[in-house]
Amino acid sequence: MLDRLLDLLLIAVVRAWFAQPEADAPGWYRAAHTDPVVGRALRLMHRNPSHPWTVSRLALAADLLRERDATVDAVARQVGYGTGFALSTAFKRVRGLRPQEHRAGPAPVTDLTTTTRPSR
């Protein structure tokens, strides 16, 4: 527990230091507060660092949710979330809509440049 307490203390000190106007904060810290795309993701990761964050898992979940017979609970287990509720919460936070709303939306456009061609 002492290790975690020291981690939190270090984070608090670094954040306070970077919050000073004359401090020259590194790019990753400035991005968390100014970049409209990356900033949101970085803030979410900073708020919950113990979560196993991966973009590929949420992208995979989005694809799996397009399958009409897949339940949210089944997709959640397949991509590493404990419950369908946990997946729904993360999905809504990152994508801005619930998994059911995503499922009802238009099908994604297929990238034709990645299809394989038969050999001659």
Would you write up a description of this structure?
By secondary structure, the chain is mostly helical. It contains seven helices and no strands. The protein has helices at 2-19, 27-34, 38-47, 55-65, 72-79, 84-95, 99-104. Helix 2 packs across helix 3. The model is unreliable at 109-120 (pLDDT under 50).
Task: Reconstruct the topology from this structure.
Blueprint: H1 2-19, H2 27-34, H3 38-47, H4 55-65, H5 72-79, H6 84-95, H7 99-104
Helix pairs in contact: 2-3, 4-5, 5-6
Features:
disordered C terminus; mainly alpha; 120 residues; 61% helix; elongated; single chain
In short:
With 120 residues, the chain is an all-alpha fold. The protein has helices spanning 2-19, 27-34, 38-47, 55-65, 72-79, 84-95, 99-104.
Number of beta strands: 0
The computed structural class is mainly alpha
Largest sheet: none
Helix content range: 55-70%
What is the CA–CA distance across the termini? Answer: 63 Å
- Extract low-pLDDT stretches: 109-120
What is the count of DSSP helices, taking H or I runs of 4+ residues?
Answer: 7
CA-atom Rg in angstroms: 19 Å
Query: How much strand?
Result: under 5%
Average pLDDT figure: 76
Give the overall shape, derived from the CA principal axes. Answer: elongated
Q: Write the H/E string, N to C.
A: HHHHHHH
